[in-house]
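Work Package 3 (structural annotation) set out to generate three-dimensional models for the target panel prioritized at the project kickoff. During this period the team completed the workflow that converts sequence records into discrete structure tokens, so that structures can be stored uniformly alongside our sequence database. As a representative example, we reproduce one entry of 431 residues exactly as it appears in the project archive.
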Amino acid sequence: MKKIVASVGLVALGTSMIHGVETGALNSYQNNKAWSVSATLRGFYDDNINTEKNNKDDSVGFEVNPSISYGMAGEMTALNFTYSFSGKYYEERPAGSSDNWDFTHVIGADLSHSFSARTSLFLRDSFVVGQEPDVLRSGNAIVGNQRISGNNIRNYASAKLNTKVTELLGFEVGYDNTFFDYADEGPATSGLFVVAASNSGLLDRMQHGANLDSRWTLGERTTGIVGYRFGLTDFNGDEAIGGLVASPVKSEDRNSRSHYLYGGLEHAFSPDISGSLRAGAIYTDYYNDAAADPNWNPYLSANLHYQFLPESSVDVGLSVDQNASDLVGNTADFVRDTQTIVAYGKVSHRIFAQLYGSGSLTYQHQIYNGGGTGVDGKAVDYLIVGLNLDYRFNRNLSTSLGYNFDNVNSDINSGTDYNRNRIYFGVTATY
């Protein structure tokens, strides 16, 4: 079982779109001008750069992080674009790296357009080149559990059309696409056997999703949802991932089709508290694997937001879904995917005039589907904690101090269990 590494950033709790003239979706600089730029310089200490249980290697280092954003909010159309670059230098070179630097690129774009008071379109794209698994993910769950050297790519794109047919009934039609391409290619072989799969063979894939939701107005603050989603996962690494070299298990043997049926509610408990719930079931068919039976699994997506002060909020959530896996297990009954349960929480608070604090906690319980005796039905647990203090001298200059803790515990191999502590301190200039 590979090991988990989480980046120093706090966990992403979801995605947001800019709606119409809601300029609050822009940052404070974009309210005065369309663009803003920032640059961060910080030093860090990492006590376990290779995520080992024993014989840990530690390192100090520094990170440079410039970014630029552009935002525009009009009566009918709103647009936001961001680009962020991170160059992180480790004094001690991490295992598997060709040099002491990690480079990460993050590009995001959001567009919304209201055709009328009843019909709106929302478009989003998020493109990442990086090494850390929580940077490369596209949702709550982490897939691929260690820092992976090289220019690994993840792109997520989505489109949603919302229309209200009557005062009671509306519809949401959506499509999303996630693309993964890892730099590591080519399996390792020994004699007649494939002894190790590459990251491309295990995780290169295209995931398609399409949904049709009916939305029912049940009250001034309540909307009911009944929906269907179709999912298609196409592993396109086109490599052997296990078994005999002459007749191996291939990347595409793990392809799947999923059908989601769910119902739910969106409700505003007050102007400051809102939440949503979707619950149902997933039917999955592994159409390239004749030995795999289709299965049913639960589906859940729930979140709650509380804005208890203008610059202070709490978010909590819980999700149950299926995700890809970087583990093969016994090739006679290889791992096809995982059932993943993720619980998360985040709090942001303005402690006093110029001091801001935030904290996050994510717990992930991942159960393997397939892999044979000793793997099938077993689980691995992740815990990720982040704490940050931010002191803002003025609107253009701030300094931050943070701490991150990661822990992994596996039912499969206790030798892969580990914990990791990181601290950082830096300054940010914004204009």
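The domain at 23-430 is CATH 2.40.160 (Porin).
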